[in-house]
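Fold it.
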Amino acid sequence: MEHQLEIQNLNGIQVIDSRIIANGLNINHKSLMETIREYQKDLEDLGVLPFETAKPPKESKGGRPETFCYLNELQAHLLVTLSRNSPEVVAFKKSLVVAFVQARNEVALLQEVINESVDVLEKKRLYYKKQGYNDAWIEERLKNIEVRQELEAIWCKRGVSTPKQYAVLTSIISKGVFDLTPKEHSELKGLNKQPLRNHMTRLELIFMTLAEGATAEFTEARDAQTYQDMKDCAKDGGDFAGQSRLQLEAQTGRKVVSTLNFLPENRHLYQIPTTTA
């Protein structure tokens, strides 16, 4: 029998709940806690042993809070060696080893992804700098890239898999925030296959980032699972940012959506004039 074990990250350390161990060893958790108390000093030699309290188990009659603890990898392995082997216990011990290995690999992979992401963003920063964009625009563009990547990761995890699906969701967001699809927005700016976001003004980027960030929040808060659910979240995220855009336009009397692009003849418009004292 294989066990699906949840390894948690507690202050940067991979740990497992003692209740999961008790369940895997098929013993009463109270009995396991007595063993932990008996060998507490040995366990603490291998790291901090944080004790927590939780609501009483459903099957308990007294209604008293339950004490449990989190064990790191070495502590968990020491604890399970104290149990007599049986086919079920051996299977659990094997699952425990595998679970911690997988947790370490996931952390290493995540750190690799973070490092790669930082490296990619720095390369993009240099690219935009060489193209002539000002620092304020560059920072907004990089924020937009990060939020978009987070949103795409959420979509991917929830089953969005084809370029067409990504394009449809993006179009819904854009329509909500700007009252324009990406195609219409590009045409307004006079673009011909150039990346739209590289030709957005800083203010346009700000509202697009807000819309995609809101879409990510709606998607996770509602635990959207179907493609239609995600389309609904995209619409609400776009509408949320769109309402903010309309409020700003009403109070300033100025439109957010601009015909400005970053084609060579307009690049000077993205520069911040240099003043001398």
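The chain has two domains: 8-105, 132-270.
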